[in-house]
Amino acid sequence: MRHIAIIGSGPAGYYTAEAAQKLWGNEVRVDIVDRLPVPYGLIRTGVAPDHQQIKGVSRRYEATALSDNVRFVGNVTVGRDVTVAELRDEYDAVVLATGAPSDKPLGLPGDDLPGVVGSAAFVGWYNGHPDHADLAPPLRGLGAVVVGAGNVALDVARVLAKTKGEFGGSDIAGHALDRLSVGGFGTITILARRGPHQIAMTPKELGELDHLARAIPVVDPADLPPIEADAALDPGQRKSVGHLRRFATRIGGKPIRLVFDFYASPLRIEGDGRAERVVVERTRLDAHGAVVPTGATYAVPADLVVGCIGYRTPPIDGVPYDAKLGRFANDEGRIAPGLYAVGWARRGPTGTIGTNRPDGFMIIDHVVADLRTDGGKRGRAGLDELLAGRGVEVVTFRDWRRIDQAEVAAARPGSPREKFVSVKALLGARA
Ligand code: NAP
Question: Which has the closest alpha carbon to 431: 409, 411, 406?
Answer without folding.
Answer: 406
